[in-house]
Write a structure and sequence with these properties.
four-stranded antiparallel β-sheet; about 350 residues; four-stranded mixed β-sheet; alpha+beta; single chain; 17 strands; Phage tail protein beta-alpha-beta fold
Length: about 350
Amino acid sequence: MHRIMAILVLTAIPGFAFAADAAAPVAADKAVTAPLADFSASGTLQQVIEQIAKQAKVKILVDWISLSDAGASPDAKVSVKAPNATAGQLLDAALAQAAGKGKPLTWIADAASVRVSTQEQILRRGKNVAGTLAGGPFTAKDSPAGQAGAEPKGQPPTSMPAAVAKEINFDDTPLSDALATIREMAGVNYHINWKALQLIGIDKNAPVSLQAKNISPAQAMDLIFDTLNTGKNKMESIYWVVDGGVVIVSTGTALDTETRTRTFDAAEMLLVVPNFTGPNLNLGTNNPNANTTVDNSTIAISDKDRSIQNLTEAIQNTIGKDMWAPTGKGSIKVIHNQLVVTQTLLGWKLMERAAK
């Protein structure tokens, strides 16, 4: 399970419910890192979270709707016992037992409260890392792969203009004509990789239908491509990306060849928390995928290393580990608090979509 704290800043989320409403004497983000003496609790997930909140004197908000949708019921049986573990570690242990397979749960903390939800919901609803990185126009430096730190080339736009059409009415319109209409709406340069589209069975005469009012060029292309992409995997699908101020329409396979490296100030994304040696945590056996113990001999990693690991995993998980080395072409490095991210045009597009 991937724990994300100050990387994300959540706005109000419908569906969150209080696990405990006790006034916290210290900030929640501090309380979760304080050790609790000989904590032991068994029962439902809801009961255990309430016990953690009570003993840590911290307000915990739980998005039970999202947890239930992910297969984690408030009534799931969990058991946590650990000497001198922090509230955060205890939450990790309880959530690991209740999580459905492939549906990781996580928590974040700010000064006011600790919030528990699925990793997917926190990434989507918060100001997530992928959104910070993939949103445009970029304020970060943008350079070809292998030239991280190069001076930005005039910072060409990386997002579609926000122009809105009065009305679109495509009825079995050839794809080439539909894209020409959208290009005129947006007033930007287009390049359509017809050869790549033909390899997945889409040509200029492919019929498209769309009736809409007050829709942006970006929304229009999203709707058209969603229809054409039905039944296709991400490599066979059609996407639009903005690269160097030009809108490129192509397939995932073609967009997964060229990489772009962008650098960002990572200081605000990294949270430094106290070093700790892993306590013995009795996680129970409800989740066969969960480790049964965390031994006291666990080697403590540095604050910064742990923060970098959390940050890296949060970014990678938004689009899938297959897009990152060694399987894919993407990579992430932190150099002197500078986050250096290399990813293909497809990878950047997938991060942008994950942020919506």
